[in-house]
Amino acid sequence: MNDQAAVNRSVLGRLLEELSWAGASIRAYRDGGRGYENVLTAEALAGLDFLPRQAFLGAVVSAGHGADRARMKFVGEVEEAVVTLLPDEFKLRPAAPTYQTQMVVQPDGIMVSPNCFVLIEAKRIRTSSFQPEQLAREYVTAVREAGDRTPLLLLILGSAPPVTVRGHGRMGIEEAVALHLESVVDRMDGSDLDPAMLVDQISDVFAWTTWHDVGRVVADQERRFAADDPSVVASVRRLAASVTQAIERHS
């Protein structure tokens, strides 16, 4: 087994790889990365991945908003899902000559079950904004990568919509996605996607929750959790606490 491949399968290894590109701005992480969405993702969602799936991750997705059919389909398969946090980037124009023109998409996580492909975009709890094309790029990435699976794009936000789009102010999710959708589809390589059809399907693909709701659901489920083995209960409590404490620390 390749050592690098083994490291890249761990969320800690992927976080360190991501931070290695931070350059001089790495100093901003001296407070343990408090407030940074990649650190929050690694701390909170890794714990959520290891907790009993149906009782915790399934409950978090069930409590979300939007894309009801896709969300509940994924919840039904959550035990079988493969979760990757801070995954490799996707490129909508991989043949473009420069990195800046390759239309790079960097989701915070992906979850793949037998019949669902879920792309996670997690924002920081404090004030944050989306790049103008970000949601459109992530949308077409989710649809493209899903293939025959049902696509779902789960936003984990600092607060409930509307969301802030840089240069455009506060917007509803559907409005923010549609803003540059046609332009993104026109420029991506080898696309047969229909922008008009994509606009019609935004509400079927986009779901959202907030970090506050994630913490609340995890805390509620931890209180309800029961098992015959007290060691299992104690382990679940520790993992649940790692999620809720991470969210509290980054708030």
Report on this model:
This protein is of the alpha/beta class and 251 residues long. It has one domain. 46% of the residues lie in helices and 16% in strands. It has helices at residues 3-8, 11-19, 37-50, 57-62, 68-76, 134-146, 173-178, 181-187, 195-205, 211-224, 230-250, and strands at 82-85, 90-91, 104-105, 109-113, 116-122, 150-157, 163-165, 169-171, 206-210. The strands form 3 sheets. The chain has a 5-stranded mixed beta sheet with strand order 1-4-5-6-9. It has a two-stranded antiparallel sheet with strand order 2-3. It is globular, with a radius of gyration of 18 Å. The model is unreliable at 1-7 (pLDDT under 50).
What is the element string, with H for helices and E for strands?
HHHHHEEEEEHEEEHHHEHH
Please bin the fraction of helical residues: 40-55%
Percentage beta strand: 15-25%
Main pleated-sheet profile: 5 strands, mixed
Domain module tally: 1
Distance from first to last alpha carbon: 39 Å
* SS-based class: alpha/beta
Quickly count the helices: 11
**Uncertain regions spanning at least 5 consecutive residues:** 1-7
Spatial shape? globular
* Strand order, sheet with most strands: 1-4-5-6-9
Task: Report the count of strand segments.
Answer: 9
Compute the gyration radius: what is it? Answer: 18 Å
* Global mean pLDDT: 92
Protein name: Restriction endonuclease
Name its key features.
single chain, 251 residues, alpha/beta, five-stranded mixed sheet, two-stranded antiparallel ribbon, disordered N terminus
